[in-house]
Specification:
With about 150 residues, the protein is an alpha+beta fold. It has one domain: Nuclear Transport Factor 2, Chain: A (Roll). About 25% of the residues lie in helices and about 40% in strands. The protein has 3 helices and 6 strands; from the N terminus they run H-H-E-E-H-E-E-E-E. The chain has a 6-stranded mixed β-sheet with strand order 2-1-6-5-4-3. It is globular, with a radius of gyration of 15 Å. It starts with 13 loop residues before the first helix and ends in a 16-residue tail after the last strand. About 20% of the residues are buried.
C-alpha cells in the first residue's frame, strides 16, 4: 500500500523547505514518537550520533527511549540549505536527565525526501553541552514557527 503523501513535496523552494523545517520542529516538540515517525518512509535510514536505524518501528522505539531519558525536551530548528529533494538544518535543544542535570544539544541534520514528501534519510551529528538551569534559552515555544 502506498504511503500517504506528506506535503510540501520536493523539489523544494525556500518557502516549502522552511515549511518542512517548521513542521519537523513542531512534531519533535510534541515528544510523540508515533506522530514523529509518520514523517519518515517505512524503510527510512537514520544515523543519530552513533546509532544507525532502519524503518519506522526502529525510529519509534528510539524516540520513545530518547524522550524517557531527555526530559522536558525543547527544540529549535533552523533551515540551513536546500536543493531538490534535500534539506540541511542546524538545531539546538535543551533537556535534563533524571538527576536534574541540564544539557543543550547542538547539531546538524541532513535530510533526503522521497517524491511523496516523506523523509527517507536523516543523518544527525549532535554534541551535548552541560548547562545550569538558569542558562536555559529554550524555555517556551517559539513565537514564530521555525524561529
Amino acid at each position: 500500500m502506498p504511503e500517504t503523501p506528506r506535503p510540501p513535496l520536493p523539489p523544494f523552494t525556500a518557502e516549502t523547505a522552511l515549511e518542512k523545517v517548521c513542521a519537523a520542529e513542531a512534531a519533535w516538540n510534541s515528544r510523540d514518537p508515533e506522530r514523529v515517525a509518520l514523517a519518515y518512509t517505512e524503510d527510512s535510514e537514520w544515523r543519530d550520533r552513533d546509532v544507525f536505524l532502519t524503518g519506522r518501528a526502529e525510529i519509534t522505539a528510539f524516540l520513545r527511549d530518547k524522550w524517557r531519558r531527555e526530559l522536558d525536551y525543547r527544540l529549535r530548528k533552523e533551515l540551513w540549505a536546500y536543493t531538490g529533494d534535500r534539506i540541511a538544518v542546524r538545531f539546538a535543544y535543551e533537556w535534563h536527565d533524571a538527576a536534574g542535570r541540564w544539557f543543550r544539544s547542538y547539531g546538524n541534520e541532513n535530510w533526503e525526501f522521497a517524491a511523496n514528501g516523506l523523509m527517507r534519510r536523516r543523518f544527525a551529528s549532535i554534541d551535548d553541552v552541560p548547562i545550569r538551569q538558569h542558562e536555559r534559552r529554550l524555555t517556551a515555544p517559539p513565537s514564530v514557527p521555525g524561529a
